[in-house]
Design a protein that fits this description.
The protein is of the alpha+beta class and about 400 residues long. The chain is built from eight helices and 19 strands. α1 packs across α2 and α1 runs parallel beside α3.
Length: about 400
């Protein structure tokens, strides 16, 4: 018996001409209860979490990462990236995902130039399992995020208004269309034509789908707490709350190797740190102090989403850690002092009348610091950047770490 299965997926246009993957993620996340999340943040996170950035605007593994990272509490699924050898195989994977899991898929089309949401299919019968090849596919229903919102075409482009349930997306004309039906013959000849970009997925047919949660895979279960949307940085008080909750969730206060460092501590003032190697990426360091011992432990929390990231603990008898430098100390160590620029470039004097102290701490993996708990103050002098590590060491630059050097 012929079947037609169609999922309800809110339609949204892409905010720019390269945000197709971000718009698709926005639609799928909205359909599974994650709310309407901003495309700017999705796009940035896609590109911060890929193995092949140079080849893509919306990389496949970055798109998969975003869908898994932002899936809501209570959603038991887990998104997998499929890179298959044939159009038939990927098309049947789309049908099975819709039929068995009830979640729309994001498919790569036009030889890797575009992403769209596949939310329905028509076939001679419903697939019996993921490997079923006995049925015939007739058509697909899709959400195509093209064209970009009208404000993109301004001169200069205007910031698009926030998406909502009444944002006008899908209204026709320059607002896109919410209902698009593609026959399977057209799908094969014009849409599912493989990928020509990069190396990891070159010549493959690619889609991000929702399979059963892997039983032992880390992160397969959705987090229990309500997650921040990431549009604004968390307040320091919220960072403290999330840091303490993260420690409890992982049972660190009860572990023998952590108990001494965490007992009877009080949270200090969180330090905001910006990642220099990732766009729009920030974290808080929450110090935990105990009397004269000073800082005995510290917790890193994502400053956009509130996720507990990691922690460090002082061993019994050790010296206080993370003695934060205040701005006066930083300036006392750098102003009017010649700083060697290295590579025979001479020395630079930071003039009292001509410098800028960056408002947050900064960090990236480098030879000067391979721990996110040892970030830097950054002083800008013209085109030069001077970095003052929390232990007061001064550097004229941050070098990429290379164990072979």
């Amino acid at each position: 018996m012929a079947v037609h299965e169609l999922l309800s997926v809110p339609y949204h246009q892409q905010d720019t001409d390269v945000y197709c993957g971000a718009a698709c993620a926005q639609m799928v996340l909205g359909s599974i209860g994650a709310g309407i999340q901003a495309q700017d943040g999705i796009y940035t996170d896609e590109r911060n979490h890929t193995s092949e950035l140079a080849s893509w605007y919306n990389p496949p593994d970055g798109l998969q990462w975003v869908l898994n990272d932002r899936r809501p509490a209570g959603f038991g699924g887990w998104f997998a990236l499929y890179s298959l050898a044939s159009e038939d195989a990927i098309s049947r994977k789309l049908c099975w995902t819709i039929h068995h899991y009830g979640v729309a898929a994001v498919a790569m089309v036009y030889k890797g130039d575009h992403w769209l949401v596949v939310r329905g299919y028509e076939a001679s019968a419903a697939p019996a399992d993921y490997a079923d090849t006995s049925y015939t596919i007739t058509a697909f229903d899709v959400n195509n995020p093209w064209p970009p919102v009208p404000s993109f075409y301004g001169n200069p482009p205007a910031t698009p208004p926030p998406h909502s349930g009444t944002d006008g997306c899908g209204g026709g004309g320059t607002r896109g269309v919410a209902n698009e039906h593609i026959t399977y013959s057209t799908w094969k000849s014009s849409y599912a034509t493989g990928n020509k970009y990069g190396t990891l997925w070159n010549g493959r047919y690619v889609a991000v789908c929702d399979p059963d949660p892997p039983p032992e895979r880390l992160g397969a279960q959705a987090p229990a707490r309500k997650r921040a949307e990431g549009r604004q940085l968390l307040r320091p008080g919220t960072a403290i709350k999330n840091a303490l909750a993260g420690l409890e969730r992982h049972g660190l206060p009860e572990r023998k190797d952590w108990k001494w460092a965490l007992d009877d501590t009080e949270p200090g003032t969180p330090l905001l740190v910006q990642r220099l190697d990732e766009i729009d990426s920030y974290y808080y360091i929450v110090p935990l102090t105990r009397g004269r011992l000073g800082v005995t432990a510290a917790v890193a929390v994502d400053a956009r989403f509130g996720d507990y990231r990691q922690a460090i603990a002082l061993p019994r008898g050790g010296s206080s850690i993370l003695t934060a430098l205040d701005s006066k100390t930083v300036l006392r160590e750098t102003l009017e002092r010649p700083i060697d620029l290295g590579d025979r470039a001479g020395r630079l004097t930071v003039r009292r009348e001509a410098y800028c102290l960056y408002p947050t701490l900064v960090w990236r993996p480098c030879r000067e610091s391979l721990s996110p708990f040892l970030p830097f103050h950054m002083v800008t002098v013209g085109s030069h950047r001077i970095y003052v590590r929390l232990d007061a060491r001064i550097f004229a630059g941050l070098r990429l770490y290379n164990p072979g050097i």
